[in-house]
Amino acid sequence: MRWLDNVVDLDFFNIVVVGQCLGYSNKLSTFGEDFAHDMDSLFFRLSGGFSNLFPVDYFSQPNPTKDRSKSMQILALWALCLNQVEVVKCIWAHSPEPMPLALVMSRIAKSLAFEGREYFFYEERLKILAHYLTNAACNLLDEAYKSAPKPAYLTLCQKLSNFNRLTMTRLAYETNNREFISHECCQRWVLRLFYSNLKIGQIVNGISLPRWLKILLSAVFVVPIWIWISVGPSSSEFSGHDLPHNEQPKSQISPTVALLQNGQPKKRVRAASTYSMHSGRSYGLHRDDTAAPSRDERTFGTETPRSGIAPSLHVGGNDEVEAMLPQEDRKFRSSLDIPSRRKGVRRKATRASLGDFYSAPIVKYWLSLTFRVLYLCFFAYSIALPGCGNAWFDYALWLWTLMWLLESIWVIYLRCRDTNISQLRWTLFDVISVSLFLIALITFESAGRLMIKYVSFPSAYLVKVIWSCLLLYQCYATLFIYIPLSDLLGPLLVRVKLMVTRDFVYFFILVSLAVCSTAIAVKAIVYPDLELTIGVIRHHISWAWMQLFTTDLKALEQTEKCRATFLAPRSRDYCTHVGGFANHECPADSQATYFVIVEYLIVLKLICWPLLFALFAKTAKEVDDEADKIWKYQLYGLATDFSLRPCLPPPFTPLFFLGVTCCQLSSCACGFFNKVSFTSSDHPDVIHHSRNDTSLLLSPSKVSVVYRNPSVPNQKIGTTKHFYCKAALNYWKSNIINTDSKLERRLSAFTKSLNEKVHHLIVSTNFSGIAAQSDERKIWSAGDPDESKRVIVNEKYRSWHVLIPDYCPPNYSKPIQDFSQELQKFVDQTSPNHLAELCKQWRQKKLHDLLKEKSTDLQLSTVGLPLNPSGRTGLSGRGNLVKFGPNNLQFYVIITRTSAQQLMILTTPDNDLPNKQRYDYNRADEYLHNILTTINVPDPSAQIYSTKGHLTTGQIDNCVLHVCTQPLSSNEDTDNAWTEADVWAVNLTEPIDYLIQMSPNGFKWQPANYLFSQKLRNDFVKQSLRAFKLQT
Question: Does residue 127 share a domain with residue 21?
């Protein structure tokens, strides 16, 4: 409560957390057990099903034994409820379990952002925090995986006691953290879950079959199991560091030492002796494998110089898992990660038993897919039979479908025990849909076959329709269930789903509005006398929908029957026979009929369809990374799903359950059914705590009793945990440093600008002495009355940074009518209204420029007009130029290569780069297009090259480079208008199929090292060659 009282902004806590989420009507006054229980329930809902995140016993017991990680977790959650984002980051960085806490906190932050979606700034702040925590968890895993892949992998295999005893990957899946699941280490873990401990070999070297074919043949014919399939050891057989403290093997003390210590006061335990080989041996036996190597180990070289992250851990070998690793990583990960003293424990792969083979999710997947294809083929044949078909086939098909349904229900039942129901939305939808289909089929089929003698019940066709709809549904369901395993079709299917949900839904709404409105308009204009009935409306809407795929212009044609019923205008009644025909089904012959139909076809064919294709293309490009993450996230769900399925697919699933039931009732040691696991989805590398394995863990190389030296401390804090804590602190500190550096850069820029302005202010206050120096001042130059007057400014006072109190040059802007007819549309008008609007636009441009990361040196006058970057010219206004500000003179550096591999530059006959004044802001450059077609560049390529006007300076796209923009000194320049060189370069050396015209009309080619008379032209050429990395 003291923390709550010291918080300045309590609106989020009082409105969103207390009022909206907890439903309290009053502000929180006391912190009691009831409130703690409500907060724990709230976090259970926000986190997606994680209990005991805010335990009540921490506040009910006076002096409980509190875990530091749980305490830091409670503090972080409380800071999150108070919307103190920086405090949350700080507490997370100092937490003993930073990676799982980041995943859970990210999910809670997203849920709180959704709860506070009515408050924009709170929502955005929480979303940014969720993104920060997600990136932090991924960064920790990435650093660990790059440092030592196998210990990082084993981190994913450890069950977290504070988070429902889930593994790290399962925790990421339950919190919907796709970024974490899509990491390479997690994908390696998921693939390992798919293949379990199976290793797939080959019979003869050089003859290889696809893995899926080997698995399928082994599953169907059984015999190839002992030929191709073997079982490798899991990581739990080699590491005992994950056992809880109460299950760790008790160290044995020498009887002599115990007798001498009996009755003696407890002494301080000294450090391990540097000179005692027995101490080192005893310590090496009972030390924690995750502990940091001591100084003695580093000195004697007994520790493998791999990494500080538990370098002695081992991950059981698996060909499928190793196939995911980069080629260079596979060379040493099987040797350097295992210390030499552990090599004696490694086991060789053994032949796979039937239970080991058929319990692997990948085997269940291919078996299920095979029987699914057979099921769909049998389904298609059964419903394609004429009439009512074969009744026995229908019964068998219904039972087969029921078996698929029961299998799905079984999987849902098992997954609901430790998974939030929100993760199974599509599975529940599939179960409900198939159940409705089966209920409808059994209802109508029984009604049609049993009641046919009493009531004429025409259900045969209806049953046929239901069977057909069920076939379509099962085909689409098969795609969504089995396709995610394919690395090609899986991401593609996700992209299609995203395109449909994001674009097609809104496109469908747009088209529906156009279709319905056009259907009513066609009815009113084309058939004005037709009765308005449901059938007529349905017919016109159907016609309008069909125009999406066909073009029906029958409404514009008059048949002979309609012409015969034509009525003269004088014989028509005003309100009847409006269309002019006695037959009301004849279309009206008028211009409005043509207009409404042609307008609808134009909107539908030329606007809607291209718009849909453009939306699909845009979305497909944008969701590429997102689709890959979603696909990898779905892989975990697929692996979990098939790990829980029975090994025998429908229709043999009842045989499997029958066999398991018989074995359990009779307590027989049926090897197959006892070994096949179908009630859990445990990963093969997840370490299961069991006292039966202590013998294996206690024998490093041979079975012997080695007494522990009590003077050697037994280290309990592993370096793996220490590594993640240190990495979290480094990530938090680096983020703070980056934020501070950004603020410092902005502050330094503002400080520099402020110092310059202060300097200018000081200069302006002391400028009276400068005004008295008439020798340095120039007089006004009086010209002809019809010409502009220009002040001659001394060179040292041309800069705008030098303030001149009485600088007030004459203003001149050439009238619009004095320009040519082609340029008049580009000239900036100087009337008061137009000038005020122009100044407003320049001020807005200056404001946007200040908000950019890279701002330009755009300066404005007091009235808002741009100032010449070259300084004062002695004349304000537009002068003889067309526009205020820069007037672009575009230069084109076109480069090609001769057959002798010599670089050539295109020039004009007077030995200058091609250039032209350009005042429009169109994306297409017609002058460049004409130049390229003149030198024989194909028109499609020339069109592409000339439409790159959107490129910024220094950007290259498709052999087109925007080189630079640079002011050009000209006598026509004024204080508010100047000439600017806009340089573009085109590289024609790459496409070898271009037949460049070496003697073009109006141009000529010069070597790339040709020296122009003006130095700027040479600079333009050099910059272009340097950007394209071309050597002269």
Answer: yes
